[in-house]
Amino acid sequence: EKGGFEHFMMKEIHEQPKAARDTIGHYIVDEAINLSDISTQIAQLDGIEQIYIVACGSAYHVGIAAQYIIEDFAGVPVRVDLASEFRYRKPLLKKSDLVIVISQSGETADSLAALRLAVDQEIPTLAIVNVLGSSIAREAGDVLYTYAGPEIAVATTKAYSTQLLICYVLAVEWGLAKGRISDEEYHRLIKEIESLPAKMDRTLEDKERIQWFASKFANAHDMFFIGRGIDYAISMEGSLKMKEISYVHSEAYAAGELKHGTISLIEDGTLTVGILTQPDLYEKTISNMVEVKSRGGYIMGLTSYGNYNVEDTAHFTVYIPKTDPHFATSLAIIPLQLMGYYVSVSKGLDVDKPRNLAKSVTVE
Ligand code: F6R
User: Fold this and answer.
1) How much is the pLDDT for 137?
2) If you average pLDDT over residues 215-241, what whole number do you get?
3) Does residue 259 have an active-site annotation?
4) Is the C-beta atom of 301 inside 6 A of ligand 1?
5) Tell me, what's the ipTM?
6) 0.95 cut: is pTM over it?
7) Per residue in 18-41, is it b (16+ CB within 10 Å) or e — as a string?
8) Where is the active site (predicted)?
9) For ligand 1, what atom is nearest to the CA of residue 136?
10) What's the mean pLDDT in 123-149?
11) What is the mean pLDDT of residues 174-184?
12) Of 18, 243, 284, 359, which is the active-site residue?
């Protein structure tokens, strides 16, 4: 049942290219985006002036990445909320808003309550869900399913990755609908999305090098993940993967925010992972990595092939294949999933069923 892997999580990490192919195959047909599963109003973002993305945990991190991409491509403001906050903060929703709820299980209590709040006010809703016929899928106005297949490990990997892909497809389609993306750019971006599964396969080939590196941090007390923009979204998910299965305290920080307090936590040898997939932000994040290094921090860089000058600052560097920077999360997350996995294995922990956690959080 684990397909020759020691844990479901590792099996599911390796299933990501296939899950991505299946999801892309559903929503990109004959080199065009196919959103025939949902209303044309939402598919074309007709009359929508503001988007809310509401979710918990890793699905919320997808929302953070999607925020940058949708705003960039479609030019529509996006606000991302934790479902547990959204449902109690009396959000000022308008009929011209779209509320997107992202959930693997489709049963997360807070996400479901957030969805109901929007549905009750007759606000257009769109769910991005993995489990067919789940509560969120049934109650949302429109649904786009991720085709990740069943996810068994508590820590999400392939569902997260397929949620991202749906956000890419939406952002590109909306960019075209709003006239902010040319036909030529639309086709280039579609090709780029279609090339991601093969690049995921290539990223997985680095597994042993990451295993070796991760095994050195089995006794770590703290870790930091830093980045700017989409790299900050990647940092959040990398940090959650680390803490939830390896029980190492870790935090994600917007790189520029470190010096406002957190940098005082850096001690000799504290691992800080600097994420650098966004070319226009490289230099800024590198300067923050230098600050951490000069206080004794141990630096891992995560960047795209070709960006070799990261090695001037990082003690250890992991490279991912080049892609459009908007889509880099799909590749950069893989080494971070592997890091969390291997630190957990090095500590002899129950990778698939970490303490205190449940796969589906049906109570608030
Ligand atoms: C982390 C993880 C959780 C879920 C969160 C939402 O690896 O799995 O953070 O992402 O509980 O669950 P769903 O997506 O089922 O609503």
Assistant:
1) 98
2) 96
3) no
4) no
5) 0.99
6) yes
7) bbbbbbbebbbeeeebebeebeee
8) 359 (for fru-6p isomerization activity)
9) 16
10) 98
11) 98
12) 359
Determine the distance separating the centroid of ligand 1 and the alpha carbon of 49, expressed in angstroms.
28
Residue nearest to atom 4 of ligand 1 (CA): 57
Decide the pairing of beta strands 271-276 and 222-227. parallel
Report in angstroms the alpha-carbon separations of 101 from 1, 53, 87, 113, 223: 31, 6, 12, 10, 30
261 band by pLDDT with thresholds 50, 70 and 90: confident
Query: What is the 294 CA–ligand 1 centroid distance (Å)?
Result: 36
d(CA 73, CA 180): 7
Q: Which atom of ligand 1 is nearest to the CA of 163?
A: 14
CB 238 within 8 A of CB 276: no
29 SS3 class: strand
Task: Write out pLDDT tens, residues 280-323.
Answer: 999 999 999 999 999 999 999 999 999 999 999 999 999 999 99
Question: Which amino acid would we find at residue 9?
Answer: M
Question: Starting at the edge strand that comes first in sequence, how are the strands of the sheet with 78-82 ordered?
Answer: 78-82, 50-55, 97-103, 125-129, 142-145
pLDDT reading at 180 higher than 90: yes
Q: How many angstroms separate the alpha carbon of residue 185 from the centre of ligand 1?
A: 33
In 3D space, the residue among 340, 18, 335 whose CA is nearest the CA of residue 165 turns out to be 18
What is the token pair recorded at 211?
């295993």
Record the tokens describing residue 11, joined without a space.
């099996």
Report whether 266 contacts 291 (CB < 8 A): no
Are 139 and 119 in contact by the 8 Å Cβ rule? The answer is yes
In angstroms, what is the span from residue 104 Cα to ligand 1's centroid? 7
Burial 99-128 (b: 16+ CB within 10 A, else e): bbbbbbbbbbbbbbbbbbbbbeeebbbbbb
Q: Does residue 246 have its Cβ closer than 6 Å to ligand 1?
A: no
Q: State yes or no: pLDDT of 7 exceeds 90.
A: yes
Closest atom of ligand 1 to 159 CA is 14
- The answer, yes or no, to whether any atom of ligand 1 lies below 6 A from the CB of 112, is no
130 CB within 6 A, ligand 1 = no
User: Residue 206: which residues within 8 A CB-CB, separation 6 or more?
Assistant: 318, 319, 335, 338
Cross-strand bridge partners of residue 78? 51
